[in-house]
Amino acid sequence: MQSLTPSSSGINLKSLIRTKIQSNRVNPNRPVIRCVYRFDAANAAVNTGTANTNSVGHVGGSRADWQSSCAILASKVVSQQQNAEKSGGAGNITAVNGHKAAMDLDLVPIDNQPKPLTITDLSPAPMHGAQLRVPYQGVPGAYSEAAAGKAYPKCEAIPCDQFEVAFQAVELWIADRAVLPVENSLGGSIHRNYDLLLRHRLHIVGEVQLPVHHCLLALPGVRKEYLNRVISHPQALAQCELTLTKLGLNVTREAVDDTAGAAEYIASNNLRDTAAIASARAADLYGLQILAEGIQDDSSNVTRFVMLAREPIIPRTDRPFKTSIVFAHDKGTSVLFKVLSAFAFRNISLTKIESRPHRNRPIRLVDDANVGTAKHFEYMFYVDFEASMADVRAQNALAEVQEFTSFLRVLGSYPMDMTPWCPSRED
Ligand SMILES: O=C(O)C(=O)Cc1ccccc1
Known about the structure:
Elements: H1 6-9, H2 41-46, H3 63-87, E1 95-96, E2 99-100, H4 119-122, E3 133-137, H5 143-151, E4 156-160, H6 163-171, E5 178-184, E6 188-189, H7 191-199, E7 203-211, E8 215-218, E9 229-232, H8 234-239, H9 241-246, E10 252-255, H10 259-269, E11 274-278, H11 280-286, E12 289-293, E13 302-309, E14 321-328, H12 335-344, E15 350-357, E16 363-366, E17 372-375, E18 379-385, H13 392-404, E19 407-415
The structure holds 3-phenylpyruvic acid.
Residues 138, 142-144, 181, 212, 233, 235-236, 258-260, 303 line the site of 3-phenylpyruvic acid.
Domain ACT: 324-415
Enzyme class: lyase
Pfam families: PDT (PF00800)
């Protein structure tokens, strides 16, 4: 057995070689991508192309299988890139986004000439077939799965046991987009996930707002009076705190990785004293009954998710776009005021501004070459504004912001989710 180290893989698997976050889940065979540590060279040979997580026992089957898939896919990508480099100029292009192109331009009949690239060719597209692979943290029935379905209706949503794994799946070309909850109308920003955006080099390419309709789930026949404990994702527990008390539930609250995972845990352990806060779909999937529905404290409870890809999308001005940035400054007076003025003077509306302290916590920033450096900042500021990076106002505003700040990164410029939402039973 050969162990996979960052240097031997040639890809950054450092963040995978870390203490695995304890998961409460109990079924080791479910098709969830899990964090992986070791690479088995012998397995690698037989597991080529097992990135499809629909098949239980491949990606979801064991850590080694998934790691093998990562390594193989990554090495294929590298060798494809090397071949492309060796073969050189445009006349040798063999395929562009899956369309065969001319090998020898002089000999090709006129109507077989390669078509000019269009804007669609330049947008990040799946490298395999038509179905986008979209990893999310959690198990089927999680709200993130619903968000993936809203963003990409025909996608293959892939459950992962950690966000890190979802990010790595996209970085290693196993998947096309990752979905990440970033803020909630009740609970505010999910800071940990903003940290992930900084530690990785994926780009925000879209957003969806999802009305979240929580249910209290328990095994069939269990009544509220039997309950000692309610388990769920920390955001879900916080969003239902008042209602749980109003329901007269004198129970302990326990946080787990995701809402649907809580439902699955109760079902697979036959826990008759425990309820989960999760979606109605999770009740269906794991055979639980709904004891109460719509238990969020605010009926207009909405979570915002962002979609991440390896490449940014080309910003446009023919539809409403939003841009997300993060910046920090080392010293100086009124920096925040100056930054905000850069937007205000150009009539650019901000939809979010948030700071978070970073005094004693160096943050590992990754540059375009995926080289990580630790840097100390007192505060990081996250700003979302309503303009596309194709808009000259946004370009000028950012040029000005750059003058006042010591660190500035555009997390993405992407179409705004304009779909009207209203509280509904649909999760
Ligand atoms: O745990 C889930 O189902 C998630 O997708 C995260 C989450 C939790 C609570 C509200 C919205 C999203």
